[in-house]
């Protein structure tokens, strides 16, 4: 019982320290760090997104660009829109962790 209360006290102290402790560095340092992280994640997300679209183009037996651009095929447009939304949701979930 005593060990349990010691563990709870240590956990409470740690939680209070984490909640009260200030951010690392100055405000500008934290801002720059977050801007760099956002830029890196955005670039990686866009690269993965473009790769998935190219992969979808290669896997289909027809040209998606030709079907949408020249034939005005609405069904292919809806399928590509679903692929775009699905990949975007997956990338966003991966970035958010």
TrEMBL record:
Where is this gene product found? Cell membrane
Keyword Cell membrane appears in the UniProt entry: yes
InterPro entries attached here? DUF350
Q: How does it sit in the membrane?
A: Multi-pass membrane protein
Q: Which GO terms describe its cellular component?
A: plasma membrane
Keyword hit for Transmembrane helix: yes
- Write out the entry's keywords from A to Z: Cell membrane, Membrane, Transmembrane, Transmembrane helix
Q: For this UniProt entry, which segments traverse the membrane?
A: 35-56, 76-96
* Family classification: Belongs to the UPF0719 family.
Q: What is this protein called?
A: DUF350 domain-containing protein
Q: Give the species.
A: Neorhodopirellula pilleata
């Amino acid at each position: 019982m005593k060990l349990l209360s010691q563990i709870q006290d240590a956990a409470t102290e740690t939680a209070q320290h984490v909640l009260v402790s200030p951010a690392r560095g100055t405000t500008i340092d934290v801002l720059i760090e977050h801007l760099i992280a956002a830029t890196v994640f955005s670039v990686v997300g866009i690269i993965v997104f473009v790769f998935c679209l190219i992969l979808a183009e290669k896997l289909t037996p027809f040209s998606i660009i030709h079907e949408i651009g020249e034939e005005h095929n609405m069904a292919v447009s809806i399928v590509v829109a679903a692929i775009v939304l699905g990949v975007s949701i997956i990338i966003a979930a991966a970035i958010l962790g």
